[in-house]
Design a protein that fits this description.
Shape: elongated
Helix content: 25-40%
Structural class: alpha+beta
Radius of gyration: 33 Å
Mean pLDDT: 93
């Protein structure tokens, strides 16, 4: 097939191009998307459904190769390895808006691979990859019910900017990644500098106009070079089995679905399913045991979903008995662990997060090579999220963090980072250990991190809280928002909309939908619902600890920042690092020196901190006219002596200034190696220092 292209222009004069037919033509669908000189390829492939599988196995992969930016990978191994955090996060934002747009019961394996081909250093490729993935699926023969559009919205100098450049993003107060269909939002994610709900609404409507253009461009390209959609097999529950299961469970299913406790509810469901299987097995003797187990599992899950949603919609009765606006019981505690620098335990119902804060120096900053930028990035605040099997009362494989854990940690990190002062001298790491989970553990991590930071004495500008809003819709257009959803409402509901912020505004947000889009205004209602709940949670946090502790935790290392003349950096370091090494060896302190003369000194206690500080200031001090020093005679001449009053700084003590009487020989007063008390009389333009022992003794009354 010959190459087909469609070009279009978005607000702000941003020209984009999507093309197909030139690359990866053996895939079910493929395309490239270009903005500026940044180009991303996406290719979609499919395979047969795996027997016994009861879910849609969509796999999204996004990779950035250094060759795209004309660079070599750092380190010893000159080949890209496991995906970076940025690549994993990009995989997630591509996956989430695509998944709701496949039909129920479609279990074929689908893999979407996105590859950065060219990086101009100005335009970020993540939203381009989202658009490319949608376009590849639209062009393919797969039953994708798209297309979707995807853009980033920034706010620079008070104006919304579409797909801002990296330079513009450094000045932006908003980072909104938006994906949707015309007039419907499917996914948003990002962070903000305390933006209001009104600003968020305006930004989404601004993005929606670009989405309309992008969707039409994809349809135009599909008309030129797309494939005909094929007939697919949908793996739905056999009608007779579904009917038999529903008839057996009809009498008691509503009670089972509304048992308040998570474990009690699951146990009741498992008992009902086991009884149902035993009762109806004989009616389906022609089915294998494996097929019967699989189909009854799918049918029962569908039944529980239908009943749970119906009870919520018709009776406004939730599985745990709360009203639709009610928050689960909240509790907050700080200082729960010894030794650590800061700790907190935050609970919302059965969801519980233990968060630990640790303070360190510049060497503890997280470094990452930046393919799409000029310099490596150094992160001075970061948050890691861990979700162990015991948090849900299960056993399972124990391994490193998965995509979900990395994504949840990133959301919490971005939300809390906005209140950590940029000039705070410590590097800060928070670790959220989920103790138990029944919905919104990432939001519990935000609250726990706020508490742990204040417990550690980090002077955050304001507490941050997070809460999630859910949604249940009906066949006749019914729509009901739910404040603070539990796991069952997340699983059986239509939306998980997380919003974090302070009393002044939003700092982080993330939307997941199971629907192929909802009106923007409905999402804005959810934002307002979250704002009300956020204020309640902030009340609990502030009651636990009203403000950051006045001093850094006594368990944390001591740190002080001093500033020296940049010209003195060499004197502080010394030849071959001799001076600085001596200071660190003798005091045990860690010392970081910036080019502007900022010196950060960190030691395990105040005594060693003061020792290191004294040595640093002593090594970099400058002579002051009128000040008295105790100096060492470094050389003797006929006309006087040269005295070192500060490390590397000496001055002339003329024979006439040695005493208040006539001195015949310099050796009568001092010799090389002696210590003498002198006063600085003058420093000329060339830096030469004139000293006086006579004036110093007179001033001291000797």
């Amino acid at each position: 097939m010959s190459e087909q292209k469609v070009c279009f222009e978005l607000a702000g004069g941003k020209s984009m191009e999507i093309a197909t037919g030139k690359l990866a033509n053996l895939a079910n669908g493929s395309c490239t998307v270009r903005l500026g000189d940044t180009i991303v390829l996406a290719a979609a492939c499919s395979g047969d459904a795996v027997p016994g599988q009861d879910f849609f196995p969509l796999q999204v992969d996004y990779r950035e190769k250094y060759s795209a930016a004309g660079k070599f990978p750092g380190g010893y191994i000159k080949r890209e390895g496991r995906p970076t955090t940025k690549e994993i996060l990009t995989c997630r934002v591509i996956d989430r808006p695509l998944r709701p747009l496949f039909p129920k019961g479609f279990f074929d394996e689908v893999q979407v691979s996105c590859l950065l081909l060219s990086a101009d250093g100005k335009n970020e490729p993540d939203v381009l990859a989202m658009l490319a993935a949608s376009c590849a699926l639209t062009l393919s023969d797969l039953p994708f019910q798209g297309p979707i559009g995807a853009v980033r919205v920034g706010k620079v100098d008070g104006k919304y900017v579409l797909n801002p450049t990296n330079e513009e993003m450094r000045r932006s107060t908003l980072d909104l990644i938006y994906a949707g269909t015309p007039d419907k939002v499917i996914m948003i994610e990002g962070e903000a500098e305390f933006c209001t709900e009104t600003e968020m609404r305006e930004a989404m409507y601004f993005a929606n106009e670009a989405v309309k253009i992008q969707c039409q461009a994809q349809l135009d390209l599909a008309a030129k070079g797309g494939k005909t959609k094929r007939e697919v097999t949908l793996h739905l529950v056999p009608e007779a089995l579904d009917k038999a299961l529903r008839e057996f469970c009809a009498g008691d299913i509503e009670r089972v679905c509304t048992v308040p406790g998570k474990n009690d509810r699951l146990n009741a469901m498992n008992t009902m399913l086991a009884d149902c299987r035993a009762a109806i097995r004989g009616n389906f003797a022609d089915m294998s045991d494996e097929d019967f187990q699989l189909e009854t599992t799918k049918a029962f899950d569908d039944l529980v979903r239908d009943v749970t949603r119906s009870v919520i919609l018709t009776k406004q009765y939730r599985p745990d008995g709360r009203s639709i606006t009610e928050i689960r019981p909240l509790s907050a505690e700080v200082g729960v662990l010894p030794v650590v620098h800061g700790s907190a335990l935050f609970s919302r119902g059965e969801t519980q997060a233990l968060v630990i804060a640790t303070l360190g120096n510049e060497k503890d900053a997280q470094e990452a090579d930046n393919i799409t930028g000029d310099e490596p990035s150094f992160k001075r605040f970061y948050l890691h999220y861990n979700f162990p099997n015991y948090s849900v009362g299960e056993v399972g494989r124990i391994s490193g963090p998965g995509r979900r854990e990395i994504g949840h940690g990133d959301l919490a990190e971005r939300s809390v980072s906005k209140v950590v002062p940029k000039d705070f001298p410590y590097v800060v790491r928070c670790v959220s250990e989920i103790m138990s989970s029944n919905g919104s553990t990432s939001m519990a991590s935000v609250c726990g991190a706020t508490l742990a930071l204040m417990d550690a004495g980090v002077p955050i500008t304001a507490p941050v809280a997070g809460i999630s809003c859910g949604l249940v819709t009906g066949d006749n257009g019914e729509r009901l928002l739910l404040t603070d959803i539990i796991g069952a409402e997340d699983h059986f509901g239509d939306m998980d909309f997380k919003v974090c912020g302070t009393r002044d505004g939003i700092t982080g947000f993330q939307l997941d939908l199971k629907l192929p889009g909802i009106p923007i205004d409905l999402l804005c209602e959810g934002m307002e619902r979250n704002k009300i709940a956020r204020m309640t949670i902030l009340d609990v946090i502030e009651k636990c600890i009203p403000a950051p502790r006045a001093e850094i935790s006594p368990n944390a290392p001591r740190m002080e920042v001093v500033r020296i003349n940049p010209d003195k950096i060499g004197a502080l370091i010394g030849p071959g690092g001799k001076n600085i090494k001596a200071i660190t060896d003798e005091t045990g302190a860690a010392i970081d020196i910036a080019e502007d003369g900022t010196v950060k000194i960190m030691a395990q206690d105040k005594e060693h901190l003061e020792m290191a500080k004294e040595r640093v200031l002593g090594a970099t001090a400058e002579a002051e006219i009128g000040k008295i020093y105790r100096g060492k005679v470094v050389s003797v001449k006929d006309f006087g002596a040269f005295v070192e009053i500060l490390p590397g700084i000496d001055g002339l003590l003329h024979i006439s200034e040695m005493a208040d009487y006539r001195v015949r020989e310099v050796s009568d007063i001092c010799k090389e190696g002696d210590w003498v008390t002198v006063k600085v009389l003058d420093i000329d333009n060339s830096g030469k220092i004139r000293l006086s022992r006579k004036a110093a003794l007179k001033e001291m009354g000797e």
